């Protein structure tokens, strides 16, 4: 065996044994030469091989460090195939929700019956009467000028001053998030996500060949700021993708102080924040919470929003207020989908001009709160001892934590056979941390069918009891 | 200087000097050890560095080869920044076309006044009366079932039997092409494109961190089959992206025999063909030409189509008949834009059901042929001696070749100041091969303004005369 290969194996075994924990600085090249009695070339080659296999990372002007935990236990190949399995799983879950015979507690979208169908269709009719052939051109990226202006006005009402030129209209928030991530990273870069996280973040990271650094979030305070700072200290992080308001799946909203702290922290490390704020309009209380974007002074927060969760399903219109990154995002969009459909942009601009939006949102928030309370109450009667339900103000998700040992991936399969979908915890992490949890979408009409479904879930869970 | 660095520099200089032409096998590691009197480690390290810089490629069980011409003259970094410049240029060209004061001879889209505006708007109105909240779900990928069925019927009329399940509806053909490329490649892979090529292919390749292998196409026969085969022999090609009918910018359509040959050749090398067929409906003659997909027996041709060039601008609806790759493309779409807008899919399905499409297309082809003839005639009177115009049957592009020495990038800038856009040759290649050429979109109404613009172009060209 070549000397460099011996050294490679040795260091790899030391990392596996925990001798060099994730984030530790490895001995320098010179130190290794002295300690191991081998040539500098041998050490360099060994470090290169370890880096190419994802065991270690080099940081310019600093040295070599052990790679984060997620990459530590398996070489890149295995990690990749695990990811593909999650994708298959997400895909299966999404496909199942399409079946109108399935009760979609697993969906991420609210009941579209809650949307102002008649007014939206009136706007679409208006557009069909007014659309001119030139509208295809004038709605190219960054998108419809009137729509961007009305969005800028909505930001202004929240005390956020930004130019309509900073806003890019996209094919839903998912395109906004994906383009944002692409705009600030290169393949191989590290990206901070939270854990649990929206599975779209995991998929985007895999698709763009990035590496995820997961920082825990909890339902009390949201993302762990101290761990976030440690992660920023240790790794060359190129982006941070978080939900700061009504986080999916936990439902947690960061306090204003924590949002300000988050922006300041990321500014200090020059790390762009991709702020996924698709549930922003579904707040509870007297005042809408500010997004983290409110505290952004450097144009380094990319605030992604959407109409899909609060106004209309299927139009596929979202946006990003991208600060200094707006130009780059436009270009990426021109290369990948060219633009958002002109009639859809115009229909939304027409609807927003009617000023019915806020009236609709107020009613929507009330209905969702009522429905969530019903589902929560029914769950309380159906869950085993030791289970808990996170029910935070706003939104329409309930996060159910069963006692350890319960298997919600299995529960998902069993429930599906009974015509009920749930979003199992497995979706929300690259690992196995949440396989005893699941998310319930409580936005659906509360009727005997829904009540029976919660009972069925309770029975299936009870049957899993292992004691 | 370290020994491996000396060897790296030496081999790099040899490649630059043409001692090892692109595609040549380099001396093996053992041979280098003997020839250079250095250690195996030193040679390995040098080869690794050369590979990481794009000078050479390794081929499993075979050895190291000099990288293709495109990568030969510059290390990866420089190639990248050149690409970014092209992107800026493409972006500028696209932005200029948006200005309604500019005569858009540089546009890739036909005059939208030629589209059946009234019937399309009637379809949009129908949709606005019939759309239900559930339509958002039922139009998720692979897309609207009725639309996919009607597309499959149109394929069937051409003798192409494919299941509607093979078809994925996308946000325009650009998304179809990008998802197709992504579905069959990984970053770093080699992709064959033609030269000149649609600039979107260059952008997609850069965005996905792929490497382009350009094979020449000419206006007589299209892509050079012999060079294509040599390229497939030499490089581990993972995809081939071509326009087989009414190629942009040349206007050439491969003969049926050549299309069959192309499919057979790529099948032999197991290379998927991404067939960009967005001008398919703008054929001339008695019968529409078959796409290469017609000869596909392995489901390895991804045929990408669109309504944007022949029916409606700004709806952003295209599709791919993706054969064995359809499932993977659906998943990539679910991760990146989620889906195509439901009302837009429904409006097109409604329009296609009226059976007005073929009547419209027949008239459109006639009008375009007439307009192209007028522009060509005017150009003949305005161009300098030695210039030539490719005017092939069908479509609406004219490809103008000025004598060597003329600079169409400069011409583009000068014409823009006169309120005229053209598509300069620089857009259609990563290199400088076509800087004396430009593309003219002849789909616009032929009036005094257009005639004056052609005269102005002629004058600007005459002013460039250097003799």
Automatic annotation (TrEMBL), chains A, B:
Domain HTH gntR-type: 1-69
PROSITE patterns documented for this protein: HTH_GNTR
Keywords: Aminotransferase, DNA-binding, Pyridoxal phosphate, Transcription, Transcription regulation, Transferase
Origin superkingdom: Bacteria
InterPro entries per the UniProt record, alphabetical: Aminotransferase_I/II_large, HTH_trans_reg/aminotransferase, PyrdxlP-dep_Trfase, PyrdxlP-dep_Trfase_major, PyrdxlP-dep_Trfase_small, Tscrpt_reg_HTH_GntR, WH-like_DNA-bd_sf, WH_DNA-bd_sf
Stored CDD domains: AAT_like, WHTH_GntR
GO MF assignments: DNA binding; DNA-binding transcription factor activity; pyridoxal phosphate binding; transaminase activity
Gene3D superfamilies per UniProt: Aspartate Aminotransferase, domain 1 (3.90.1150.10), Type I PLP-dependent aspartate aminotransferase-like (Major domain) (3.40.640.10), Winged helix-like DNA-binding domain superfamily/Winged helix DNA-binding domain (1.10.10.10)
SMART domains reported in the protein's UniProt record: HTH_GNTR (SM00345)
Protein family (similarity comment): In the C-terminal section; belongs to the class-I pyridoxal-phosphate-dependent aminotransferase family.
Descriptive protein name: PLP-dependent aminotransferase family protein
Organism: Candidatus Pantoea deserta
């Amino acid at each position: 065996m070549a000397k460099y290969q011996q050294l490679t194996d040795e260091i790899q075994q030391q990392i596996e044994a925990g001798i060099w924990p994730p984030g530790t600085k490895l001995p320098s090249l010179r130190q290794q030469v002295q300690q191991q009695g081998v040539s500098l070339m041998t050490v360099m080659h060994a470090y290169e091989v370890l880096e190419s296999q994802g065991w270690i990372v080099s940081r310019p002007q600093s040295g070599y460090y052990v790679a984060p935990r997620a990459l530590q236990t398996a070489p890149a190949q295995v990690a990749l195939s695990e990811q593909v399995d999650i994708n298959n799983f997400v895909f299966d879950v999404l496909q199942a929700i399409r079946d109108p015979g399935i009760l979609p507690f697993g969906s991420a979208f609210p009941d579209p019956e809650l949307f102002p169908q008649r007014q939206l269709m009136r706007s679409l009719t208006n557009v069909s009467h007014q659309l001119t052939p030139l509208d295809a051109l004038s709605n190219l990226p960054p998108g419809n000028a009137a729509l961007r202006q009305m969005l800028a006005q909505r930001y202004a009402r929240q005390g956020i001053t930004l130019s309509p030129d900073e806003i890019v209209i996209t094919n839903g928030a998912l395109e906004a998030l994906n383009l944002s991530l692409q705009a600030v990273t290169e393949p191989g870069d590290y990206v901070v996500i939270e854990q649990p996280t929206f599975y779209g973040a995991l998929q985007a990271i895999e698709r763009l060949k990035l590496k995820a650094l997961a920082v825990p979030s909890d339902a009390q305070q949201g993302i762990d700021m101290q761990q976030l700072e440690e992660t920023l200290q240790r790794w060359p992080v190129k982006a941070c993708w978080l939900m700061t308001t009504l986080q999916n799946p936990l439902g947690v909203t960061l306090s204003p102080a924590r949002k300000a702290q988050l922006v300041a922290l990321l500014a200090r490390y020059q790390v762009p924040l991709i702020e996924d704020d698709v549930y922003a309009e579904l707040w509870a209380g007297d005042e809408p919470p500010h997004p983290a974007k409110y505290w952004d002074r450097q144009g380094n927060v990319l605030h992604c929003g959407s109409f899909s969760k609060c106004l209309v399903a299927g139009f596929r219109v979202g946006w990003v207020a991208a600060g200094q990154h707006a130009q780059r995002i436009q270009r990426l969009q021109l290369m990948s989908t060219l633009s958002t459909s002109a009639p859809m942009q115009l229909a939304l601009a027409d609807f927003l001009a009617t000023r019915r939006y806020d009236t609709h949102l107020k009613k929507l928030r009330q209905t969702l709160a009522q429905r969530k309370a019903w589902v929560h109450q029914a769950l309380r009667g159906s869950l085993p001892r030791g289970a808990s339900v996170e029910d935070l103000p706003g939104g329409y998700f309930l996060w159910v934590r069963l006692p350890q040992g319960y298997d919600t991936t299995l529960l998902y399969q069993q429930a599906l056979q009974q015509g009920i979908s749930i979003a199992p915890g497995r979706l929300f992490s690259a690992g196995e941390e949440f396989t005893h949890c699941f998310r319930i979408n409580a936005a659906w009409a509360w009727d005997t069918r829904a009540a029976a479904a919660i009972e069925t879930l309770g029975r299936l869970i009870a049957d899993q009891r292992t004691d």
